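Repro case for the chain-ordering regression, as requested:
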Amino acid sequence: MTATSARNERATVHPPRRYRSENGWGTRLGAVVIVLFCLLPFYWMVVVAFRETAHTFDTTPWPTFVTLDNFTAALSTSAGNDFLAAIRNSLLISLCTTLVAVLLGISVAYALARLEFRGKNVVTGIVLGASMFPGVALVTPLFQLFSAPEVGWIGTYQALIVPNISFALPLTIYTLTSFLNDMPWELEEAARMDGATRGQAFRKVILPLALPAVFTTAILAFIASWNEYLLASQLSNRRTEPVTVAIARFAGDNPYIQPYATIMAAGTLVTIPLVVVVLIFQRPIVAGLTAGGVKS
Amino acid sequence: MMRSTKRIAVLALVAAVALTGCAGRSASDVDTTARGPITMAMGSNDAGKLAPVIEAWNAAHPDETVTMFELPKDADPARDTLVQSLQARSGDYDVMALDVVWTGEFAAHRWILPLEGDLAIDTSGLLPATVDSATYRETLYAAPMNTNAQLLFYRTDLVPTAPATWQDLLASCPTARAADVDCLDLQLKSYEGITVQATQAINSWGGSAVGPDGLTPTVTTPQATAAIQAVTDAYADGDIAGRSSGFTEEETNLAFLAGETMYAYNWPYMFDTAKTEPTSTVGDDFAVAPIVGPDGVGASTLGGYNNAINAYSEYPATARDFVAFVQNEDNQRAFADQSFPPVLASVYDDPELVAQYPYLPVLKDALEHAQPRPVTPFYSGVSKAIQDNAYAAITGARPVDQALADMQAAMTAAAS
Amino acid sequence: MTQAPSETEAVVLTTGTPDRRRRDDGRWAWALIAPTLLILAIVIGYPIVQAVRLAFQADEQLDPATGFFEEGGFAGGSNFVHWLMQDCGGGAGSCPPGTLGSEFWSAIGVTFFFTIVTVTLEVALGFWFATIMGKNLWGRSVIRASVLVPWAIPTAVTAKLWYFMFADNGIVNSVLGQQIPWMTGVWESRFAVIVADVWKTTPFVALLILAGLQMIPKDVYEAARMDGASRWQQFTRITLPLVRPALMVAILFRVLDALRMYDLPAIMQGASGGSPTTTMSILVTADMRQGNFNSASALSTLVFLVIFLVAFVMVKFLGANAVDQTRAGARPATKEKTS
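-- result from build under test --
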């Protein structure tokens, strides 16, 4: 049985419910360490978010002086902040970015992995080169481009989505190409011989196999876009600003005091939608990520 | 698809023109009598203080309303936003609340209109140092809105009266050691705060950071050397707390409120936080005095905002009336009420306000001795030259003479 | 949009001559690639062209007579000389401390130091994460969700969070029972930035590697075990070669990202230069803040070249070019084991 044909057997969507004996204590301990590594700082953020401002620097490791004030402060619209709107903006921008970047990424990856054409190396070079220019040097030219009267994009969503797409593209293209390269194209060939069109063959044969990579890539693209701050801070306005900009604008009562607790509350609020998204899509993600495995 | 490529080419041209042709407008080709609705841009942390002012203005001028646009909270991104829009020659922000140190740069780029002729304002009642901070090359380019000066905060439970000179201050440090607290905390982290401290020291010792032309650095004079040497020695002796080298205003404030230091240099806002913050342990056991130099009251460094009129504004006349309106007595009194130190001298003598804010007379004293930071078009470069080298000198990384020679050279390089 | 060949046409064409087929492939390929190139041209291409153009212009000069800024004119290569030779007007090495010019080489050093340390740590940790995440563990979903958390927190918040934890009276010092100046010491502050970056980015690397690991068929390992291969041999002879394309993509992207590191050090230590964590990107913004758009453009061009060189070396000599693998030649040799 070759590696290729092994992969052709569609994997089960549900991971087998039989836990291998190979998961020794080392693995279990490792899993615990990973969860702690990832969650402890986050836990601390949540604890401080729920703590009265007066005790922000309290170092008791469990929640003390619990209060909701910081969340009230983070969500209050009194000081001109509108955090919920910012979360909506971020979701809209990141979802659009992810959708377009993954679609374009698949098209380019398909062209690079499957098609013979001149200039392939030039295209790869351009895509890679695009991810090398320092982002800080993009801000001014883009601002001037978008604020030109013929364009008038400042304060629109596309002013934020288009740059985000271009940042996500090299990643989506590269990752997807490296996976599509490993696809059993002879199967697609066979489907085409049976009369399937190019599109049908790709959809029916290749796409299901590539799903894990597509999902992973989508998550990466979504989060990258969700985290983008540098350009958003210059190219957004009150109506379109994403959460990163909103958080950066959080102000306390005076300019010299960092409202740490408010920032931590905001950070908690921003992280929750993503965790929810992950949990909602848990099944497809897990299915996707394990599709490469074979029924054991 | 074809059309959009063409469009991009057109755009590239437009942007190229915008980038290369950064020449602003001079007052001569602006209609200084035009009136209409305007927008004011200001950092989001203080913009709220203007809300009542704008409300009052809009009630009286329904055809020339003012809308507030909030800039990012931090100074750098706020300035970036303004600079970018001005480079695109946008008149979006008719009135811009400039951090005092930006005035020279904005003026030299012709981004803001000189307040002369139709746009002249009356500065007779203002504190002279605030007018200086808005003046570039003998021309007034902005209307001071509020000001600020650092004060010496001291713990009355440890020292009954404020020190009169720098030497007195150092002489009382054993008291702090006995009480197991820092003697003096101030902002020596390598950021704008150490520029404030260094220029404050240099001015207090009778020197100056730059000469009368606002460009030529003068930090190798005997006075400047003595000033930085004094701070360096105090830091080396531990009279200035070692941890101050990592302090911004915020850490200073936290340390003072926690009762960890006997003296602190900070802005007046700390008066309110020490009195009202629930975390404050100092209660009423503290008072303020002007900062000190070798011979008495020192020369504090000025802070605050200056309101400037955008050179591309459609309605300069309205903008001018509004910046003058901000300076009227009612509004300045309201600022004092929000710990936003006014620029109008008379407000500081108002008995009612003084009863409520006991630090006002001290602040006025400090402001009368205060000096603005250099009004130079190369401010950020100059400030960086001061920051990096003052930090190196004070923390002992380089000898004072050498660090000041480097500072002189770096300030010269920044302004070329 | 160019008209893509219709699907029926495509079917006919694929059964045609190889030559016809290549032409058809080409048309399809460019139709698929065009929108991407358009977006990249707007967002990246245009600014690069601008930067190169501006790099050869002098920054505006103050007219001593009027006090106003005037056009700088053509500068030739002097902006590049300024950075590379630390020339502040008095010949090579004339930039005194306290000028951005004097920080060029240290910024490059700091950037490379950050890149090497963070990427090494992230790949090592990421590999380990991925191995464990790939196992059939109870609570796998918990691990997956929690691994995404550090990455889901916006960088601005991450920076503030670690700044807060590393504060003098923060939780880190309190747990260690030490008074370490995390935010002011030279190496301490660099360490703090590295910790924050590793925490934030390891999940990203782990996910990329995991996706690569998932592509490896299980029966390869079965066969290897039957042949008596040890755990270590399985790892070095099967896992590493098979996961290599995915791993290389992960490393390449992390290196390119790390070389442009800006947010974390800028928020934790300030972006005006002069701090022990000043990276190349921070130097660019610091120079723009001083109004020197043209020398900043020259600097971004230099940064671009440095990164380009690194990427070139990686692609050329380390085989980080996943795209270049032709379908035929890229199959790892271990495949033979599986038959």
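Ordering looks correct now. Residues 103 and 134 of chain B are 6 Å apart (CA to CA).
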